[in-house]
From TrEMBL:
It comes from Xiphophorus couchianus (Monterrey platyfish). Coiled coil: none annotated. One of its GO terms (cellular component) is nucleus. The keyword Nucleotide-binding applies. This is BTAF1 RNA polymerase II, B-TFIID transcription factor-associated.
């Protein structure tokens, strides 16, 4: 409708049509004011604001509609804001104001009054803006409409000021008020305001905790349209809702006392500004002619004098404030200033107990009298010592301290009388202290504001002390920042006024301020003891105990680093959510000026004093501007003099140390003053400041830690105010000190200065980042703790900003050398942040495998880390070949180092061994993989394992090998041996085992010394943020700060954001922290998921996991070899091989088959063969009982241990949920576990999953599940990702089921018929499977199982995804090899390849296995073959 009406309005053919459209439009807007939002967003607004001629005449309809709409609105109308905003916007256009309105503004403007006290601040703001627009754009005739409502307008605006708590709106109120005073003829203003001046002053001095008397406020009810109701004038005795109003708004009553005091003082200050403006009008000379009978100025002077003479502190403060603000606006009103001046100066010397402390004061009198009478009861008479009816605060204080102690000295402290006296004394003492605190604060404020008034009126007394003292005391003690900064500005004015006085007080005042600025030891370090001593720290909480890494003393250490760590400690020590930010606007405060409530008193006192001095010094610097060094030579000299002296003397460090702590402290203090003032100094003084930059650089090498620290902070501040000049000098002179390995002091100064520059410049450091990253990176492996930690912290910050660097031009005036260097180092950074830009690393030794593209990329990345002495985490998905990539860099680097050493004999490339630490089930696997991919001349691994005696023997072998493979537990137990070897590479496989930094294992691993450290891990570390710290603490200690700093910066916000109850602010903070952390660690993490590299991968990756038989299994295997059963098997086979080749049917009667079946079960688990019928059963069970073990123990079945490790590697069963609360509900990998025999499945379920991995969820599918239910189990597994594992027998699992829910398949045992295993694998690898499937086969080394797998050769070549003829056919095999199946290979090293390829015999193994296939029929799957009779032949 709106749109159509506007078209009519715009294009209507006759004025009548248009008029009708405009009226209709007005009605629509009245009925649907919320549509105004749409109006604002359309072209309509622009038509209204700049209407074509034909519409101009109808704009009044729209505007009148808006004015009328104001009558219908109340607090709850949603569109109030839209209407007010549109109205104030429209009124800014001249034609809108000019157009004849139906009613005059005198009637319309009062409709705005109710909105001045609206509950929504944006509505209050819009109402004030409407008034300001009307006033500021008004013409000469405006008095016509303002006059009748002028008094109401002044009252409403002033009342808003008193009740307002929003800073921005207070500023707007002042703007409107001053505009009003300037637009209306002065005589009208005076006539309207004089009757209310007294009431306004009273409102301004309203006590903050007492509600305002409602008779003093204009009550604003929205006028209704019926004119009768409108006549009910304000102040009428209508029934009022009693809403209590307080100064600075009732909503701030609930705030803490500091915040409440802040907003109340702010309201008083603003009210004083309004009244100050009014006083100027009242004192207009034209309105105060000598001939007048009543002169307004005289009345005003009497009113002010009346309040100055009262005994109320608030009345005196109010008058002093009004005088201050008025004198600032009008310098020459002799009449009033001569009336109040003598009284002002006498107030400065008065000591008075103000009305405001009447209640605590009376209570103090009563309690003191009660105490005296109690003392009298025990015959202690104080008449002669305290003979007064009213006690002063000092007398009362003396009574409850000295007098009480002296007079009760002889009493028994355990007697009831004494206890009663003591409790009364304590009560009285707390009242005395409370009264004293209140009085001191009021007394100081009265004197301070009075002093300010005297300064602004320029009536300085002969003796300045009464004036200076309250100002200086306020700077030192006042907790309210507004009052402190107010005092600071008047100190600046006082210094200006006193510049020509003799004797001049300025040097003394400045000396005092400079001393106060250096009082706070948390900001200005002491040269003798730059950080708190160990005892003080112990009092403050267990910092040392908590692994606070950094120690600082007089000459060594970095204070900035120490403070960062302290700050993090403080944040993380606090329990509970992060505290809300204080409400008081902290914009005008210097950094660190908010006072935390939990600081102890002395710290708070120092902080307040320092903050006040900073306010004063910065205000002085701004006030004097370019004239500072000439007008206040003492201050200038005090700031830069000691710096010049250092440069002039140019002493050696030893000489500087000999000059002592006092000389160093003087330098520290002058640097502190420089830091405070530099930012506030005028631009013209900057060149003078920059002359001292070289002197600051000299101080960066000073032997005193505190001097270096302050110099670094000053360099930081200069970099902020003169970035180009400071950074150019810094890059030229200081940056290269980082590499001065022989001079630790220089390095510490340089890295601390860089840290301070980064802190100050923040994002502005970006143009210089490229030049800073590489030198800092070089220090991340510095031998000195302090330098390493500070460098890693700087690097961490820089690396997060690097993405911003790309499009930023070089800073002007950068030298050509630096620009070239920048280009070189940018290339490094690009490689660091984008793996695709890495140089291709040609592996210098032959590797017996063809690397896929992503594997070559991984090796390139490892080589890049190697080149720049960096460390990282390779966390590719399972099965992508992390081991192979690591072997490539291990072998390559070993070879290149050896070549380099042969050429140069340099110590830094002497041959060193490397170390691989992995879970115990993987040590053998690693040794095999190394042998498989790389020949012994390049990598010769030592398998460091076995019982302690065996390991002792192996320790002597280490020198002969260039790679040691050991398990975590072994390294932990033998850490004393490993700690003393310097390794080239230290690789932690499945390195997330050190995610908890507090375990013995982690602590041991972190003692290993290596040139390069790499962690391999298949679990996605990035999700479990809190575990990252420990991993990086191994790789690059300090890169993520101390654990406390890490928790403060990332852990707390990220965990808080994951809490269901978190606020949107906390969630945003969590997201930002997570992003920052990712930016920081991603250059050192390489993670490829299978889905990322699918094009490089086959659909299946098959890996064999070799297990070594447990001692128990070896014993049983050997018993078989000696038994009767073995002999009869040999006979059967020899007989079979004697027949002709045409009939290769193996007459493998029971014996051969049973023997194979027996050995196969034995490989799986000794429990499967050690039934009570077994001849060795009793002996073995007794033997195990002696060792506190039994047959069910998984240590006797290496396949179960290996399976457990595999599941853990898949991210299943790790637990850890309680620690970080971040364990995923759905695991990353889901697993099918295949066994041949149902009894083996039982063992997996009852001996492994339930007791050892209780968090793993599983389903089971075997022959005992009725066929009808099998499908529902399969679909449940496929559709419910929270189920981790499905247990199957090969037979059931191979029957055409579709199990695409899983991506990992584990064969605990194997079918003789390779096709059956292949079918089982394909369960997980069907069309629906989007992921690559990993197949793990657990094979017992040296047994029949390994031989059969070797014979079958059905392991798929990884690149060849088709099962071709070659894979399925089996080579022929001789009798001796078939017999070989039944013996246990002792020596693992026999080269199996040769055996299997030999074709010496006549009988074909195919015939044997075919026969086995037939024997092994369906029933034997279901009811497992009964071996009882076979058992008997084992004797």
């Amino acid at each position: 409708i709106l749109d159509r009406l506007f078209i009519l309005l715009d294009t209507g053919t006759t004025p009548v049509t248009r008029k009708a459209a405009a009226q209709q439009l007005g009605e629509v807007v009245k009925l649907h004011p919320h549509e105004l939002n749409n109006l604002l967003s359309k072209d309509v607004f622009s038509i209204l604001c700049n209407p074509p001629e034909q519409i101009r005449v109808f704009v009044p309809f729209i505007v009148n509609t808006l004015w009328d709409a104001l009558l219908d609105l109340d607090d709850l109308t949603a569109s109030t804001n839209s209407i007010m905003t549109l109205l104030s916007l429209l009124l800014t256009f001249p034609h809108v104001r000019q157009c004849s309105m139906e009613q005059s503004l005198t009637v319309l403007v009062p409709r705005v009054w109710p909105f001045l006290r609206h509950t929504i601040s944006s509505v209050r703001k819009a109402a004030l803006e409407t008034l300001y627009t009307l006033l500021s754009k008004a013409d000469e005739s405006c008095a016509v409409w303002i006059n009748p409502i002028l008094q109401d307008m002044l009252r409403h605006i002033f009342q808003s000021c008193i009740l307002e708590s929003n800073d921005e709106i207070l500023e707007l109120i002042q703007k409107v008020w001053m505009e009003l005073l300037s637009q209306v003829p002065q005589q009208f203003v005076v006539a309207a305001s004089c009757p209310w001046m007294g009431a306004w002053l009273c409102l301004m001095m309203q006590a903050s905790h007492i509600p305002i008397d409602l008779n003093m406020l204009l009550e604003v009810k929205a006028r209704s349209k019926d004119k009768a109701g409108a006549k009910a004038r304000l102040g009428n005795n209508q029934v009022k809702e009693t809403v209590q109003q307080y100064i600075a708004g009732a909503e701030t009553l609930a705030d803490d006392s500091l915040t409440r005091d802040y907003v109340v003082v702010r309201a008083r200050l603003m009210a004083a500004r309004l009244l100050g403006g009014l006083c100027r009008c009242i004192c207009d000379p034209q309105l105060n002619a000598a001939s007048q009978e009543i002169r307004p100025a005289e009345s005003l002077g009497q009113l002010l004098l009346f309040h100055l003479n009262s005994k109320s502190a608030l009345q005196r403060i109010a008058v002093a404030l009004v005088l201050c603000e008025w004198a600032a606006l009008q310098k020459d009103c002799q009449m009033v200033s001569s009336m109040v001046q003598p009284r002002l100066l006498s107030v400065l010397t008065e000591q008075l107990y103000y009305d405001e402390i009447a209640i605590p004061f009376t209570r103090m009198q009563n309690e003191c009298k009660q105490l005296i009478s109690l003392l009298a009861e025990v015959h202690i008479d104080l008449q002669d010592r305290l003979n007064s009816s009213v006690f002063t605060i000092d007398q009362a204080n003396e009574l409850v301290t000295t007098i009480f102690t002296e007079t009760t000295a002889g009493m028994n402290v355990k007697s009831k009388q004494w206890l009663a006296l003591e409790s009364k004394r304590q009560q009285a003492q707390s009242t005395v202290m409370e009264t004293n605190t209140e009085w001191q604060q009021l007394h100081l404020r009265v004197h301070m504001f009075t002093a300010c008034a005297a300064i602004n009126l320029e009536v300085l007394p002969d003796k300045l002390n009464p004036l200076v003292r309250p100002l200086m005391e306020t700077v030192k003690k006042e907790e309210n920042t507004l009052i402190q900064s107010y005092a600071a500005s008047f100190i600046a004015k006082l210094l200006r006024q006193c510049a020509v006085r003799s004797p001049c007080p300025n040097p003394k005042i400045i000396k005092n301020l400079c001393a106060s600025a250096c009082m706070d030891p948390s900001a200005t370090p002491s040269s003798a003891c730059p950080v708190p001593t160990a005892q003080e720290q112990a009092k403050g909480g267990g910092l040392e105990r908590d692994g606070m890494h950094h120690m600082v003393n007089k000459t060594q250490g970095i204070i900035t680093l120490y403070r960062h760590q302290r700050a993090a400690f403080a944040i993380t020590s606090k329990r509970g959510p992060t505290p809300k930010a204080p409400k008081a606007p902290v914009t005008e405060l210097p950094p660190g000026s908010t006072i935390s409530s939990d600081n102890d008193e002395t710290k708070k006192q120092f902080l307040v004093q320092r903050r006040g001095a900073e306010f004063a010094l910065t205000t002085v610097a701004k006030h004097f501007g370019a004239d500072l060094n000439r007008s206040l030579p003492y201050l200038w000299e005090n700031t830069v003099g000691p710096l010049k002296a250092v440069a002039k003397e140019n002493l050696y460090r030893q000489a500087q140390l000999e000059r002592g702590d006092a000389a160093a402290q003087e330098l520290v203090n002058s640097l502190q003053v420089l830091e405070v003032m530099a930012g506030a100094m005028a631009g013209e003084l900057r060149p003078l400041l920059l002359e001292h930059l070289p002197h600051l650089f000299t101080c960066l090498q000073h032997p005193y830690t505190a001097v270096r620290h302050m110099a670094a902070r000053c360099v930081g501040v200069l970099s902020k105010i003169a970035t180009l000049e400071t950074m150019n000098s810094f890059l030229e002179y200081v940056l290269h000190w980082l590499a001065a390995i022989d001079d630790c002091t220089k390095q510490e100064g340089a890295i601390e200065a860089l840290a301070c520059v980064m802190e100050q410049l923040d994002v502005d450091i970006v143009p210089y980042i490229v030049l800073l990253v590489v030198p800092v990176l070089g220090r991340m492996s510095d031998p000195s703790d302090s330098i390493r930690f500070m460098a890693t912290q700087c690097f961490a910050t820089l690396i997060r900003l690097v993405p911003l660097e790309a499009g930023i031009p070089d800073p002007p005036a950068m030298s050509a050398d630096l620009i070239q260097q920048k280009a070189r180092e940018r290339q490094f950074l690009e490689q660091l942040l984008d793996g695709r830009k890495l140089e291709n690393y040609k592996i210098p030794v032959p590797i017996k495998a063809e690397l896929r593209k992503y594997q070559q990329d991984g090796v390139n990345w490892l080589a890049f880390l190697n080149k720049y002495k960096l460390h990282g985490i390779l966390c590719d998905d399972m099965g992508l070949g992390k081991t192979l990539q690591s072997i490539c860099i291990l072998a390559g680097d070993q070879y290149l180092r050896a070549q380099e050493y042969a050429k140069t004999k340099a110590a830094d490339c002497s041959p060193l061994p490397s170390l691989v630490v992995c879970p115990p089930t993987l040590t053998g696997h690693w040794v095999d993989e190394v042998a498989k991919f790389c020949s012994k001349e390049f990598l010769n691994p030592l398998h460091y394992t076995g019982p302690p005696t065996e390991r002792m023997r192996l320790q002597h072998q280490v020198k002969k090998h260039n790679l040691v493979v050991a398990s975590y537990d072994v390294v932990r137990n033998d850490i004393d041996f490993f700690r003393n070897i310097k390794f080239n590479y230290c690789i932690l496989d499945e390195g997330h085992v050190i995610k908890n930094g507090k375990t013995k294992l982690s602590k041991a691993i972190k003692q290993l010394a290596a040139n390069f450290r790499v962690i391999l891990s298949g679990t996605p570390i990035q999700n479990n943020v809190l575990e990252l710290w420990s991993l990086f603490d191994f790789l690059m200690p300090g890169f993520l700060g101390t654990e406390r700093q890490f928790a403060a910066r990332y852990g707390k916000p990220i965990l808080a954001s994951r809490d269901a109850k978190s606020s949107s602010r906390e969630q945003e903070a969590g997201v930002l922290a997570m992003e920052a952390l990712h930016r920081q660690v991603l250059p050192f993490l390489l993670r490829r998921m299978k889905e990322d590299v699918l094009q490089d991968l086959p659909p299946k990756i098959i890996q064999d996991y070799y297990c070594t038989l447990s001692p128990l299994q070896v014993q049983l295997y050997e018993d078989f070899a000696k038994s009767r059963a073995k002999a009869s098997v040999e006979d059967s086979i020899s007989a079979a091989s004697g027949e002709e080749e045409e009939k290769p049917k193996l007459k493998a009667t029971g014996h051969v088959f049973q023997a194979l079946q027996y050995l196969r079960k034995l490989c799986n688990h000794p429990n499967l063969v050690l039934t009570p019928q077994h001849p060795e059963y009793n002996r073995i069970t007794d033997q195990l009982a002696c060792q506190n073990s039994n047959l069910r123990d998984i240590q006797h079945a290496p396949k179960l241990s290996a399976l457990k490790q595999l599941l853990l590697d898949c991210g299943l069963g790790g637990g850890g949920g309680a620690e970080g609360g971040t364990e995923a509900v759905v695991a990353q990998h889901r697993v099918l576990i295949f066994c041949q025999l149902k009894s083996m499945l039982d063992i997996v379920e009852h001996d492994l999953l339930k007791p050892k991995l209780p968090t793993v969820t599983y389903l089971r599918l075997d022959g005992s599940v009725p066929a009808g239910q099998r499908h529902s189990i399969v679909s449940r597994f496929n559709n419910d990702p929270s189920i981790d594992v499905l247990l199957l027998t090969t037979h059931v699992g191979g029957l055409g089921l579709n199990l695409t829910g899983a991506d990992t398949v584990v064969f605990v045992e194997h079918d003789w018929n390779p096709m059956r295993d292949l079918q089982a694998m394909d369960r997980a690898h069907r069309i629906g499977q989007k992921r690559v499937v990993n197949v793990y086969r657990l094979i017992t080394r040296g047994t029949l199982e390994e031989k059969i797998m070797g014979l079958q050769k059905f392991k798929m070549s990884i690149a060849n995804t088709v099962i071709n003829q070659e894979n399925t056919s089996l080579q022929s095999m001789g009798t001796d090899q078939l017999l070989n199946l039944f013996t246990l290979d002792k020596d693992d090293k026999s080269d199996k390849g040769e055996q299997s390829s030999s074709t010496s015999g006549k009988a074909s193994i195919k015939s044997v296995l075919d026969g086995l296939g037939e024997l092994w029929d369906q029933q034997q799957y279901d009811s497992e073959y009964n071996l009882d009779s076979f058992m008997n032949s084992l004797h």
